[in-house]
Write a structure and sequence with these properties.
Layout lengths: L25 E3 L5 E3 L10 E5 L8 E6 L2 E7 L4 E4 L7 E11 L2 E12 L9 E4 L8 H13 L4 E4 L20 E3 L5 E3 H13 L3 E7 L2 E2 L25 E2 L9 E3 L5 H17 L4 E5 L17 H15 L4 E4 L7 H6 L6 E5 L6 H14 L6 E5 L10 E2 L2 H14 L2 E3 L1 E2 L14 E2 L2 H16 L1 H4 L4 E3 L3 E3 L6 E3 L7 E8 L2 E8 L21 E9 L7 E4 L9 E2 L3 E3 L2 E9 L2 E6 L1
Parallel strand pairs: 1-8, 9-10, 9-23, 10-13, 13-17, 17-18, 19-20, 20-22, 21-24, 27-28
Antiparallel strand pairs: 2-3, 3-6, 4-5, 4-7, 7-8, 11-12, 14-16, 15-16, 25-28, 26-30, 28-29, 29-35, 30-34, 31-32, 31-35, 33-34
Helix pairs in contact: 1-2, 3-4, 6-7, 7-8
């Protein structure tokens, strides 16, 4: 066998003709439900694992950092403690397994994120109902649900009294109950219950508000006419965001760059922080507007105004986190270049409906944030279907999450009591099936445990791959209907190739607006070849769709720069890693 020096023949691995040593077969019987006591852990913190039922006899757990086993032990009962390595910003997979006839049977998996700062790998959830029912017990239960998905940031939507006066009551005299913008009751105690529950899990609590909203009674609360944005140079018509008739008020827009307004709203935020243990401010905007003028008739540059607003807000509360929405990318560069936001947040709409748009946004955000900030997509699924009551379309959700996560993003979608389907976060017309609930746990375990391959740098590259037994049709990014799309990245000494299954896809839009995306057919035992000139020492695959995300090492051959192997399975998404 002729072989070039750069990859060798793998003879040292013990097999002739480029073969490698035997690998332990993996199967699964995911019968053990696991949880951890926190959404993420600071270096040095211990992890408390809890199993819903007593573990089967002979159960072991191994802790993996990507392909490397960093610890292993026998476990029994329903709870045990692990001390992870103290290296910062690492994702681990805990695999519970037993051995049967030389096969590892995975019985349960769960991810662990060891990070001193949750901004490095943001996983965002939300809460949007602060009614009387949200007791300490209820909010603890809901946040335990988000904690199982390792949600480390939570956005409080529609929690406030008025956009220009978020607090219900005054700094020194809180209202026990007040009305939100839609005239729903908000209980101050419920807001506090959520924050306390989140902090028990280590999550960050972020209050939502526009950067430039004032209601019709704002003058009585000290908001000046000279601060508003106008549609004309003679300040006769204020710009507004009009709301349904039964709501409190339309929202009138203020100039976010106006220094007096910035000072005013930061004083109101100070009232909020004095009464609620919020960790920061989720700043909102409304996307592109027509030409707007300040009171003096001068056209306003909103994008620059956002940057100015962020700077002033950070200066007023330097210890608080800031995240700002870039609606349809509007102002994303200015937001990122402030260096004052914890991560990017992109609300994506019909003008960015293609899977390729998601990748473009991630690329741009990398540039704007100097490759230091990760991205969360606020992306509303099954949008048209959500006009009526029904169920989320599981294939649409999973294909979109697979693509977002493989590309390095994450998805704002999970609430304490429902999943997100509309920009009005309280909308709960669509419910999650048991299948979808189970899949979400697996997908968020995958996002978390493999975060160092998915969201921690690396260089996009191209790897030629073909299927030699006709089990799948392959194309490299961008996606094509009727095909499996590959997306490749070099991360340190690892070549990562994501397989994303568009074989049965009925569109190339992530939105699945009508909930009609079909389930992909399961592909098994596809014989694959890929061109890799560097010598491969180890080849493994992992998928959120199989074995709870636990990795499977694969036998392979490498000859003349061609790595040949059999892919066990592909449903929505499988990740191949060559070390």
């Amino acid at each position: 066998m002729a072989c070039s020096d750069d990859h060798g023949s793998n003879q040292e691995n013990g097999g002739a003709s480029g073969s490698v040593t035997e690998v332990t077969p993996v199967t699964s019987d995911l019968s053990v439900d696991l949880s951890t006591d926190k959404a993420f852990y600071k270096p040095g913190e211990k992890v408390v694992f809890t199993a819903e039922d007593a573990l089967p006899a002979g159960t072991k757990v191994r802790y993996r950092l990507l392909g490397e086993v960093v610890g292993e032990e026998s476990v029994n009962g329903t709870s045990w403690i692990w001390q992870p390595p103290t290296t910062d910003f690492k994702g681990y997979m805990a695999e519970l397994y037993r051995q049967e006839n030389g096969t590892d049977v995975i019985v349960g998996t769960i991810a662990v994120d060891v990070s001193s700062d949750p901004a490095r790998f943001p996983r965002y959830g939300f809460v949007a109902d602060f009614s009387r029912e949200k007791t300490a017990e209820k909010t603890q239960e809901e946040m335990a649900y988000l904690n199982r998905h390792h949600i480390n940031w939570v956005q409080f939507q529609d929690w406030h009294n008025k956009h220009h006066w978020p607090l219900g009551g005054t700094r020194t005299q809180l209202d026990e109950v007040y009305m939100d913008i839609a005239n729903r009751e908000v209980y101050t105690s419920s807001v506090k219950n959520y924050i306390e529950a989140q902090h028990r899990f280590g999550m960050k609590s972020m209050f939502y508000n526009l950067c430039f909203g004032a209601l019709k009674d704002a003058a009585a609360d000290g908001v000046k006419e000279e601060w508003y944005l106008f549609k004309d140079a003679s300040h006769t018509t204020k710009d507004s965001h009009d709301l349904p008739g039964g709501w409190k008020s339309n929202i009138y827009l203020v100039d976010p760059s106006n220094k007096e307004w910035q000072k005013y709203l930061n004083e109101r935020n100070d009232d909020v922080y004095a009464n609620f243990a919020f960790d920061g401010y989720q700043i909102d905007q409304l996307g592109r507007r027509s030409t707007l003028y300040n009171y003096n008739g001068i056209p306003v540059n909103l994008r620059e105004g956002y940057a100015s607003f962020i700077e002033a807000t950070k200066q007023a509360h330097p210890d608080k986190s800031l995240v700002m929405n870039a609606v349809s990318r509007y102002g994303a560069r200015q937001i990122g270049e402030t260096g004052k936001v914890d991560f990017f947040y992109n609300e994506v709409w019909a003008d960015e409906a293609d899977f390729t748009n998601l990748k473009a946004i991630l690329y741009e955000n990398g540039v704007y944030g100097n490759y230091q900030l990760n991205t969360v997509f606020a992306a509303y699924m099954n949008y048209n279907k959500a006009d009526n009551r029904g169920e989320f379309n599981t294939p649409g959700i999973l294909l979109t999450d697979a693509v977002m996560f493989a590309l390095g993003g994450s998805h704002l979608e999970l609430g304490g009591d429902h999943m997100l389907c509309k920009e009005y976060f309280p909308n709960e017309n669509l419910t999650m099936s048991e299948e979808l609930k189970t899949a979400m746990v697996r997908y968020y375990d995958f996002l978390t445990s493999y975060q160092n391959l998915l969201r921690d740098g690396g260089t996009e590259n191209s790897v030629s791959m073909n299927c030699t037994n006709g089990e799948m049709r392959l194309n490299s990014w961008p996606p094509q209907q009727g095909s499996v799309t590959t997306y490749a990245k070099q991360v340190g000494g690892k070549q990562v190739i994501h397989l994303l299954n568009f074989s049965q896809a009925n569109s190339l839009s992530w939105r699945d607006v009508d909930g009609t995306m079909p389930e992909p057919a399961l592909i098994t035992k596809a014989a694959l070849q890929m061109n890799l000139s560097a010598k491969v020492n180890k080849l493994w695959v992992a998928s959120p769709d199989v074995h709870g995300g636990a990795l499977q090492e694969l036998a392979f051959t490498q000859e003349n720069g061609v790595v040949s192997f059999t892919l066990p399975s592909l449903k929505y998404w499988t990740m191949i890693v060559a070390e």
